[in-house]
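Q: DNA polymerase III subunit delta, please. Structure only.
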Amino acid sequence: MPFHDILGQEDAKRLLQNALRKETVSHAYLFSGPSGSGQMKTALMFAQALFCTKCKDDACGECLECRKVEHGNHPDLTLLKPDGASIKIDQIRELQRVFTYRSEGVNPKVYVIDEADKMTVQAANSLLKFLEEPPAPAVGILISENSRALLPTIQSRTQRISFSPLDLEMMLQALTSEGVPVPLARCAASLTSGLDGCRELLVQNWFAEIRNLVLQLAKESLGKGSTAVATVGQKLFKTGLGEHLDILFSMFHLWFKDMLYFLYRKHESIVFIDQLDFISRHARQRSTEQWVSYMEFAADSKRKLRFNANAQLCLEQFLIRLES
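A: Structure for DNA polymerase III subunit delta:
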């Protein structure tokens, strides 16, 4: 799969291809940017291009080396990700052990550390020496959504490649061409930073269910004598959907923002576009300040969840605030 198959991220692709072309590949890179915006795909593509026997600055996708990467069994490529909540020192030690063996080909070995900011302090310190003096020629790629959480010494010893959220229209075009219904595509694209993140959400059965539930609760909470709190008890926590409250609050945030988009005649930005008729009839029932305060309620509820607040209580309080 060549570089042009990766959507967007033109600056990142140009920097990496220039390094391949000029043979100035760094010993370590930090792919920094929002989750789901294509870092892992680009890392694997870069590894493929490094190993490729046919192309100098790209991957042909056909040679034996390229096919090994695509099939996930290239002996000189090591992928590392958190074991539970963190990347532990034993995982870094194992990586170092693997690298005591020389590369099978003429190219350097490649290791990719996903969610590198989740390394424990011991693991990060262990990686530091390895970054500078790997026992065999190596190219490291650290992927991080929150690169500021990495040790400054690791940041200074890697070349940063920045990834940005993918253009919304570009994502929608790609998703709808894959057969994703427009309402779901718009919702997923507005909650993520790239196609990888979108696809991860869209394959979850609960995603469409949560969206339907948000619409039901949002509409109920606008009425007098709302039964939204009762609905939540029945629907959410008895079906297992309660595990995805962060997404639910994010969707509520989008819903309230849609009301503002309607008021400010920015119809092209509305996410819940299939609900335009309802939005047009209810957007003026609240002031701009009220819709903004509802968005703040949703953001505040997400923060509480992060600090391990009781999920059901958190949601009930949120709905009660909407009705008051």
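A: Brief note, in case it's useful. The domain at 204-323 is CATH 1.20.272 (Zinc Finger, Delta Prime; domain 3).
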